[in-house]
Amino acid sequence: MLPKFDYFAPETLQETLELLDKHGQDSKLMAGGTDLIVSLRARERLPKNVIDIKGVKELHELLYDEKRGLSVGAAVTLNRLIHHDAVSKNFPILTEAVSTIGDFEIRNRATLAGNICNASPAADSAPALLVLEANVNVASRERKTTVPIGEFFTGVKKTVLANSEMVTSINVPTPPKGSVGGYLKARRTVGEDLAVVGLGGLVTSTGKASKSVRLAYASVAPTPVRAFEAEKIFDSSKPLDELLDQAMPIVRKTVSPISDVRGGKEYRVNLVEVLTRRLVRRLWEGI
Fold first, then answer.
1. How many whole angstroms separate alpha carbon 272 and alpha carbon 227?
2. Beta strand 179-186 with 197-205: parallel, antiparallel or unpaired?
3. pTM of the model
4. Is the separation of the CB atoms in 74 and 115 below 8 Å?
5. What CATH number has the domain spanning 58-172?
6. Tens digit of each residue's pLDDT (9 = 90 or more) over 227-267
7. Class of the 6-52 domain?
């Protein structure tokens, strides 16, 4: 049984924002509901109101333009994202990461916006969005603003969103030409499971002897993290093995995993190194 709450099903974005302005402090937004329904049943969340945004047409837009990049509305499901030709062609890292979330049935309801708004440190979409340097479009009744994805997460299950604000869409710039990206996820089972460690990487040929590298991790800190300092090591013409050896100590300092039922702290730190070496080598040699 679910706890009692008032249910709202707005049909426009303006109506949604007015409801948030009036009831935001005691409300939860629902797009797919794959996280919210679970937490309601467990009595982890007891909102007085649930605002279902699936009926808001503006939030279902999924658009791609080479110059502007990809725009993913807050109500776009993960399966729709995965099977969109422009996404799979131009953002394979995002497709690869999103494909590891839950199972087909969950992805048929879950949304990209919901995955980041849930703000789990293990969010699989987060590393991909971090290395792609996505921006999150946020709106309230009073204003609209854009937040870089790296500033969106503030803690475990916490974001920059105020009670009266919501994510309307996510913009993902087209990766630089000559880029290859990928996502690796270590988990306990082959099927549906949260990440023990998640790693997103993007390697770009700079036209010189060196290549640029972007790295981001999930399930290794209170929020998903980007390894900016380690990335600087790869801006060099040195052999890849030497660069990896130099970068690994910095990567280890970037992460701060905990021990839980999915894995111990030391195990996660070792996994971070193993996955980083594996993914960077794969992408480096793929260009």
1. 11
2. antiparallel
3. 0.95
4. no
5. 3.30.465.10
6. 999 999 999 999 999 999 999 999 999 999 999 999 999 99
7. alpha beta
